[in-house]
Structures are given as structure tokens and as C-alpha cells.
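Fill-in record for DNA mismatch repair protein MutL.
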Amino acid sequence: MSDIIKLLPDAVANQIAAGEVVQRPASAVKELIENAIDAGADKIQLIIKDAGKTLIQVIDNGCGMSITDARLCFERHATSKIRKAEDLFAIRTMGFRGEAMASIAAIAHVELKTRRHEDELGTCIVIEGTQITSQEPIAAAPGTSISIKNLFFNTPARRNFLKSNPVEMRHIIEEFQRVALAHPKIFFSLHSDGNEMFHLPAEGLKQRIIHIFGNNYNQRLVPVEESTTIINLNGFIGKPEYAKKTRGEQYFFVNNRFIKDPYLNHAVLNAYDEILPAESFPLYVLFIEIEPAQIDINVHPTKTEIKYQDEKSIYAIIRSAVKRSLGKYNITPSLDFNQETGFSHMISQKKTEDIIPPTINFNPQFNPFDIGNNQPKERHSNYTESFEKKIGGIPQNWDTLYEIAHKTNSQQLTFDSANKQEPLNTVDEQQEKPAGKTIFQLHNRFILSQIRSGFMLIDQQAAHERILFERFLQQLENHQGASQQSLFPQTIHLNTADFELINDLLPDIHALGFQIRAFGKNTFVVEGIPADIGSGISESQVLEQLLEAYKNNQNELKLNKRENLARSLARNASIKAGTALGPDEMNDIIDKLFACTSPNISLSGKPIIITFTLKELLEKFEK
């Protein structure tokens, strides 16, 4: 029997490695930007076309590479970061494995232009699927420019698994934001299909957070700072009242490297215990500085998971530092001295004795109801005659029109078919004896309705959610959502990721009855909302809540776009537990609920209706 174990060719091995390192265009963006940071660049530009499927280009002003280094950087496990195994425990750079460039070159068309600052000419290398097609000297700016074209061109199965352009673009923005937050002292810019989405100058961490997420975050941030012998902790957390329904804006950085760690996330949430709204998640951007020898970052191919030597101590430090910052800063309003707060131009500079109060002249003898005394008699008589001519004279016995007001409230005159006068019950007495079905509301939460075999309890919020969900689904299918126009359109400012998400959902949002349009960079104008949404909530708040619920469902339930939108809007627009309902409203909910295709099951899969029979009641009373 011949040998069956063979060494894989380098091209195949690189494609296998690419499956771990480059999962989507955002993975390539992350690797290229991290390489630019390791090269010492203080200005990094990212250019995207077709959500990274057609082009990903990163331009930096770093140290550049020599001719030999430019060639070697595409070899597997070729790196300038480590020389021996012990170096793995002293890593402070972003990359170190030497797999990224080789993996990217195996599945794309790559063009590299680089020049060191001390060289006169640079180098241009073109690679197609691990094969170097050309290498020649060129005139280039100091630094490196690398272009990745036609990602996954030789692995069509991987390319077919990519999502739509808006979805892939959101992943790219997410990776870009993580790197930009970790390095606020570096200038970053992001261009997508010719439009500049981010322009982030070198600045402080707070300004970087505000530039990425929006100006309204200025008043939401609480600083955190703690220095110990184990770790140094600094960054910002969000005030509890601004917590959202999604986990999106939560960032942990260890030695400026973004990580995902549920254990440390629990430490932050534990610090918010009993002050956070239910099912809400706070914002935090926290940086941990720790000795590299105390951690192991070589755990996951994407380097987003880390092992610690002393996890419990780190947990306790983070929890206590966040809790102390909440107690120290959250009780007083935040002041931003960089903003204009002076109102001196609105205050008079005169002395108090020089200020003359305004005066009002009036006639204390004037009586507006005494026409005879206030107007000349001749004018009064002329006015009365002209008035009588217009109305055909003043009718006689006009005062008898008000005799009905002297009758008792308990009895009024009415006429039946035989023109007989009979007393009619008052409104209060009518409400005590409702006609038709007997309906009650329990604790402003449940609807109790009598049926032949007993009675049924209906969860009013779950029932209304089911009604609205099926109605919104039908509107999305037929594109016939009713809209109520806003008297005063409202402007809503979003961060770049949310702006791109709404652009992706815009046709379906219009089908639901929203009337919104783009109004500048990351801004929408809301001119109308669905007619099914009750009053008492602003148009911008409706859209923000819809967006948060959509992202939450997207992360947890993996619904398709239309079901997610219908569910999100139904949850926000439904009547809530604790809302008092009248008999007509309760009857309307019952009628519409039983007209649904699934009246018994709520959106969360729980029962809406529970039926109790007379037999069950009699058994409870032991009869």
C-alpha cells in the first residue's frame, strides 16, 4: 500500500489559512489597517468600493518597506515582530503571525506600492492568487499603499456566502471604528464608493468617541480611571439613562487591541446593577494596560480573545472602578468648557436704578358689558336696530329655551315610536349594565372576557403586538402602509453605521408608512410616521427605537429583514401593560386578535390567551 499523507502545496495551504484569517472583506480591512499602525503611520486612509468586494485600499505614511521586505511580506509566517518563541510573551504590536498578507494574496488580486523615507524610488508588486506577476521600481510617496481587488475571485463558494453590500459595509465600519477608537492620536479617513464617511483628525479619546458616534454623546460619557499594580484602567462609560437595547457600543481594549470577553463584560454590567433599565446595555469604551507576560493573545486566529493569569482580580478592579465613577460623576450634570455657555450678551449692563419698568395705562371705570354707559346712546340705538334687521327681529319668550337646564340629571325627556314621554337612564347607569359581552380589565394588564364555557384571560400587550405584527407584514408585502403627516418635521442625526443601516432598510421603512428622506451627512428628516403609532412619542424617537429593536432582533433571532422590521415596530407601537382601556378598545382588540392567523401565540412564542372553564372553577371551590 502506497503512502497516503502528502504535503499540501503552498497555494492550497494559504487558501486554507485564508478561511480562518479572512472571513469577509472586513477581516482584510482589519489586517491591513493594523499593519499600517505597526509601520508607525500617523495618517491612514481606507478606500472601499462595492463593500470591499471590488476594492479595499489602505494608504499610510508609515516606514515603508525595502525591495526584499516587500517580496517577503507575502510569504507564510514571514514577520518582523518576533524572532523566537519567548517573544510571544512580550508582544505589543497589532500583528505578529505573518499569515495575513499571505492569506489575502491567496484569494485576491493584490497590488503593493511602498517606499521607505530614505529611498528615492519605491517598489510595486502585483500578485494574483499567490503568483507574483510583476515587480518593478516606481515613483511613490513615502509609506505603503496596498490594494486588494476582486476578493475571493478564485474561491467562488466563499464569495457566494457574502451578504449584501449594506451588511458587509456595516462590518467594515465596525472594524474601522474599533481600530480608530484604539488609536485616537492617528488620523483616519474612510471613503466608500467615492463618498467620505469618516474624517477623524488626531485628537483625544473623548473627542474621538464623539466624532464616531455623534455630538449627542458628549453629555452621555462618564470618565473612568484606575491605576493598580495589576492593570491600569481608563476610558469612558455611559450614563444609565442612555442605555440601549443592543450591545453594539461596548468596547474593551487590552494594550490597544480590541477583544471580546464576556467575563469582563459581566464585571461592567455588575457595576450597573439596580440602576440600569431592564434589558438594556450601557455604553463603554475601556482600555486595559497590562504586562504582555501576564496575558496570552495567541488564542484565536483573529486575535480577539485573550487569556489572563489573574482574571478574578481584573474583574474586581473593573467592577469597583466603574461603580465608583458612576457614583462620582453621575449625580451631577456634566460640563463641557469647550462649548460656548456665556449669556452675558443677553443681560443688560445698566445699573439697577437706571432701568425704567414698562407702564400700562387703563381706565378703571370701563365696563365692556355696559353698552349704554360706554357708548353714546345714539350709537347704541343704531346698533340695536341694525342687529334686529339682520336677524329678523328678536324672538319672543327666548328665555324658555333654557328651561331644560333646570330639569334633574337623572331624568330627561325622550320620545319613542308612539311619541310617549319616558324617563331615560343616565350615562352612569348605562355603564353599570353594559350590553353584549361582559368584559373587564384586570390590573390594567389583562382583559377578562366571559365565554359560554367559562372565561378567558388575554394579555393585552401580547395581543396588540400580534395584531400589529401581522398588519405590518401585510403592509410590507403590499407596500400600502398608512402614514400620518407630521406638523413639524424632525431632524435625526445618526452615527455612520446606523445611517447605512437605515439606507438599506429605506424601501421597507417607506412601505410601513414612514416618510423620511436623507438630509446631509448621517442625517434624516422625518416627515411622517405610521398611522398605527399612537400619540405622545416623537417621530425621531419612533425611528430610533425601531432601529435599536431591529439590531437587537438581528443579533439574537436571526430573522429576515421584513419580519424583523414588522416585529420591531409592533413591539414599539403596541399598548403596554399598565394602560387603562375602555370597553370599546377591549372589544376592538379581541375582534382583531381572533382575525389573526396565529391569535394564540405571541411574538416571543408564549401564549396570549388562557381559558378557564366553569368545571375548573368549581373544582377550585371543591364543588
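KEY FINDING: The chain has three domains: 10-200, 205-329, 446-610.
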